[in-house]
Amino acid sequence: MAKITTYITRDIERALGMDPNPDFHIVCNKCPYSETIKQKFPDFVTLIESPAKPMGTSDLITAYSKDHKPEAANSDLLVFKNTSRVEQFATTEGWHLINPKASLGETIETKMSQVEWLGDLGKKYLPKNSVSIASNLAWTGKPFILQWDHGHTGGGTVLISREGDLKYIKDKFPNRMTRRTEYVRGPSFTVNVVVAQHKILIGNISYQITGTLPFTDNIFATVGNDWGLTHSLLNEDEIEYIQQMAQNIGKKMNISGWRGLFGIDVIRDDDKNVINLIEINARQPASTTFESILQQKNHAAGVKGLTTFEAHVRALQGEDLTEDLIPINDGAQILQRITRAVQAIPSEKVSKLESAGYSTIPYVNTMHNEDLLRIQSEMGIMETHGRLNKRGKEIMDIIS
Predict the structure, then answer these.
(1) What angle (nearest 5°) sits at the alpha carbon of residue 276, between those of residues 274 and 279?
(2) How confident is the model at residue 1 (pLDDT cuts 50, 70, 90)?
(3) What percent of the chain has pLDDT over 90?
(4) Is 61 within 8 Å of 86 (Cβ atoms)?
(5) What is the pLDDT of residue 155?
(6) What is the mean predicted confidence (pLDDT) over 172-185?
């Protein structure tokens, strides 16, 4: 790496797709978990203590920059998700931010502008949809999905299953823009993609664990990924179709000026036997870190290629990548979110999970549906779509 890359992040887990080293520094909030990482890599991790709640990325940039002006001048700045606020703070503090422009990410990710940006690809890959203000929506007797312009981890998605649901939305938010999409039943999958200057690198398709109790009380919230289930649920033609979809969207993002990671979520419509695009995450997806950890294990066993995180950083630095991403075919993670029933995980339960062979990453969040505890397994935890296997049930029993 030509220059030091400084990854500034609210949650250190986002930056752990590679070990901190002389060329890769991490700056994050001080918490019990980040302190354990600091102990392993004392020279390459900086922890910032906040008297109140953990600081967001923009405030961390300012706090770190007060005593580290030389680092700002001699480093590339990397963040998990770029925003206009992050860009403003980075410019003010003299950083060279290597993430794609926030405005481009907003155009690609926002539900309404995404339809226009995708153009013909949207007509090909999106399920049937329409954009309008809420007051213009009409009940046709069939359930449908309503999405607001912004939302993540299922927070901007509503299932309208009866006329009363729609009336409530129209009365409360009559002038809010919505995207209406036909309701599709079937398993969903995610794939991480890296856009380099002359190459689109396709990651490993994972089954997306969604809406599973007790890990969330939001039926649309993503709570994990299982890389071991993909080939059980998808045939080779379906896998190739998803990879080609990712390739085509990646090429369009490349032309628009995008570099580095993005992710797509897709769903197989089991009624029509087609695969539809659900959304594009124009940022580093949350599954990147563990995918990269699993890839590191395969690399150590002799499998050639790049990890997803390594390719992300190198693409953002302008390198012309030629290798492919390291394949994986097993491993899973599941996330306990903050729910109405679960606001904390006792330490004895965390210890029990670790004694059973799982890795855990705690978070210091407090808001409903935010991350609470990430649990990782080198083997899959799903039996089939919507059903945990023996390992998954073991995790659930310990958590419950």
Answers:
(1) 170
(2) very low
(3) 85
(4) yes
(5) 53
(6) 90
Hey, which residues does 206 pair with through a beta bridge?
Answer: 190
How big is the chain by its Cα radius of gyration, in Å?
Answer: 21
In degrees and rounded to multiples of 5, residue 317 shows phi and psi of -80, 0
- What is the greatest pairwise CA distance in the chain? 62
User: Contacts by 365-371 with C-beta closer than 8 Å and gap 24+?
Assistant: 365/338, 366/53, 366/338, 367/338, 368/338, 368/339, 368/340, 369/153, 369/154, 369/155, 369/216, 369/218, 369/221, 369/337, 369/338, 369/339, 370/337, 370/338, 371/11, 371/335, 371/337, 371/338
Are residues 287 and 204 in contact, defined by beta-carbon separation less than 8 angstroms? no
Domains, the chain, ordered by start? 4-99 (3.40.50), 128-182 (3.30.1490.20), 188-399 (3.30.470.20)
In this structure, are residues 72 and 4 in contact, taking their beta carbons and an 8 Å threshold?
Answer: no
pTM above 0.90, yes or no: yes
Give φ, ψ of 7 to 5 degrees: -95, 115
CA-based nearest residue to 251, from 107, 105, 118, 99: 118
Residue 316's φ and ψ, nearest 5 degrees, are -70, -25
SS (H, E, C) the chain: CCCEEEEEECCHHHHCCCCCECCEEEEEECCHHHHHHHHHCCCCEEEECCCCCCCCHHHHHHHHHCCCHHHHHHEEEECCCCCHHHHHHHHHCCCEECCCCHHHHHHHHCHHHHHHHHCHHHHHHCCCEEEEEHHHCCCCCCCEEEEECCCCCCCCEEEECCHHHHHHHHHHCCCCEEEEEECCCCCEEEEEEEECCCCEEECCCEEEEECCCCCCCCCCCEEEEECCCHHHHCCHHHHHHHHHHHHHHHHHHHHHCCCEEEEEEEEEECCCCEEEEEEEECCCCCCHHHHHHHHHHHHHCCCCCECHHHHHHHHHCCCCCCCCECCCCCCEEEEEECCCCCCCCCHHHHHHHHHCCCEEEECCCCCCCCEEEEEEECCCCEEECCEECHHHHHHHHHHC
Check residue 2 and give its pLDDT: 56
